[in-house]
Amino acid sequence: MSDDNHDNASPSPASGGDFIREIIDEDLASGKHSGTVTRFPPEPNGYLHIGHAKSICLNFGIAGEYGGRCHLRLDDTNPAKEDQEYVDSIQEDVRWLGFDWGEHCYFSSDYFDQLHDWAVHLINTGKAYVDDQTPEEIRKNRGNLTEPGVESPFRERSPEENLAQFEKMRAGEFADGEKVLRAKIDMAHANLNLRDPVLYRVLHASHHRTGDKWCIYPMYDFTHGQSDAIEHITHSLCTLEFENHRPLYDWFLDNLPVPSRPRQIEFARLKLNYTVISKRKLLTLVEEGHVNGWDDPRMPTLSGLRRRGYPAEAIRDFCATIGITKFNSTNDIALLENAVREVLNRDATRRMAVIDPLKVVITNYPEDQVEEMDAVNHPGDESAGIRKVPFCRELYIEREDFFEAPPKKFFRLAPGREVRFRAAYWLKCNEVIKDDAGQITELRCTYDPETRGGKNPPDGRKVKGTIHWVSARHAIDAEVRLYDRLFDHQNPDSRKRNYLDHLNPDSLDVRQDCKLEPALADAAPGEPIQFERLGYFCVDADSTPDAPVFNRTVALRDSWSRRQQ
Ligand code: ATP
Ligand code: MG
Span 353-468: which CATH code? Predict the structure, then answer.
């Protein structure tokens, strides 16, 4: 992007400019605006999801890059569905993502008085009327894309009569749905949003902030642009489905004495495969018990991803990678998972844990001996140091690291085979013990004292495999929760498919009696940890010192694409 003619503008964003940042650059260069004010306007009717993260990163990102500010606006015009719980979670999630609205947290409901005055203004200027048609009649008379609408028989009421009617609506003299206030624009307009849209409806519902003060509530379209104007928003960024609403957004700004003139710009919403991103559908998953709450680690909510162990930085990186365009497309969830791996590979402390334990007894190791083996905490970061891992006669290894009749290219433990135990010794398997059912219960091995620390023995012998292990005597018992995709179809929610029919029955795999190395007793909530060879993990919110619970955030590699073949 060329910045030659932007000498007087605020600094341009370092992260390559998308079309929205280009518009902002132009507005600053031309002097139309001297700074940027954006907003993130969630409705507090559910928890934020990964799609919201795209909008948060865009709006707060622009504020940061241009030295402007971004408001958090709770868009609370529908009291029936909104709740303080959602307001709290939204604030927590935006902060967690790494953004700060400072003093600028607002509520659309703060503007109810002003919006009411503006409705009266439209009535007085002959641009709004009270309509007594039933909701069905209004819908029917709206027409469609090929047919013009039919004007309401109440459309020509005088301003005086409209004012009196509207005042009665406000005073609670009508039941829900009995009357509405509509803008008087054009019932034959090609854009259906301009066919006398509803501005106010009667709704006898208690609001989470204004209580019972109001029994009429403004519609989204009559609220959003005016709220932007009140807050002196310069660029009002929203998703493409509002493109058709822009003429109405502008109509209100043109016909009301608003204090500023924001500009609405639309971009493509985030869509991810193997998931659904819609608060309504996520609410259904919660209410019908398909998941264990909004913060279930399988949910694409920010609280779910956080509990799963996704770092906020990875979500921001993902949003930067996919960028901002005007074209609807679906992103591969593997891209998000890779962003997570990248951050965790850099940050996670390495530890050993066994989630499907098989006992190993070292027959030539002294019964009471314990050695403290040195293990590195992070192979790419020497400053992370080393820790001591106890080693003794009885260990646990991963059941899948042993094969009685190993296939080709299986280089781990097998009868007569020697492998390296990470940070410890080389062990050779000499005997396989089974129970009456033929299930392997124990392996008898010998160790080579000359391989301490995993180093090669003097006789030049080689091993091909290295496996992880945990001392049986010192292990901590824990529950480990492994997650898979919540849906088993890449597009679970389409015209042809109902997402509830495509829930993956194996999305949660709870393993009890897993064995952890003792250092994991100190794992802190939120701390990223790699269980060597198994993936990245974190302490779950259900964890207690007596009954630790770990979540797998993501496996080390993407095994899904291979499984699909
Ligand atoms: P949902 O469809 O999940 O209910 P919404 O658009 O109704 O989402 P809001 O709370 O109104 O949810 O959204 C707040 C802001 O987040 C809006 O500006 C909206 O455009 C944006 N947003 C919501 N979903 C996405 C998404 N998938 N991608 C990008 N931005 C989104
Ligand atoms: Mg919405």
Answer: 2.40.240.10
